[in-house]
Design brief:
It contains five helices and two strands; from the N terminus they run αβαβααα. It is mainly alpha-helical.
């Protein structure tokens, strides 16, 4: 689960034989507990239907689906969904994710969370276009 800027909000690893729409029940429940300010979730069509109805009724979350245009083939940049794909690509830069050596789900979540933390701290500490570089010497003199 990522925010609109692509920064990870939470990491949950599930077994390969569990469909995403089933795992989404737990993800949405945790999202509501951890981030009560979020009211809209963008997702692909696998999360529509009963899950969207259940989320609205029990969790007060609106699931808006983003579908591919009809009669389309090949790669298409879809609004909202690209943020998730981009975040996954950023986290895959951590070479540890090239293979899954873990036996337990909890052990798989840890390196993903670590990669997400690294990604977020780099983005938060990188000066923006209009932000002057951080002067550590001046900060240490103030302290």
């Amino acid at each position: 689960m990522v925010d609109t800027r692509g920064l990870p909000l939470m990491v949950i690893v599930t077994p390969a034989d569990l469909h995403d729409s089933q795992a989404a029940k737990e993800v949405l429940f945790r999202l509501r507990l951890m981030h009560p300010e979020i009211t809209i979730v963008w997702a692909d069509r696998a999360y529509a239907g009963k899950l969207a109805t259940r989320a609205k009724k029990h969790l007060n979350l609106t699931i808006k689906t983003v579908a591919r245009p009809k009669d389309s083939s090949g790669f298409i940049l879809l609004p909202r969904r690209w943020a998730v794909e981009r975040s996954l690509a950023w986290m895959m830069d951590a070479r540890r994710h090239a293979r899954d050596y873990e036996r337990l789900i909890q052990h798989s979540e840890t390196p993903i969370t670590r990669a997400a933390i690294t990604l977020m701290t780099r983005r938060l500490t990188r000066p923006g276009k209009n932000t002057p570089p951080l002067d550590l010497a001046a900060l240490s003199q103030r302290a």
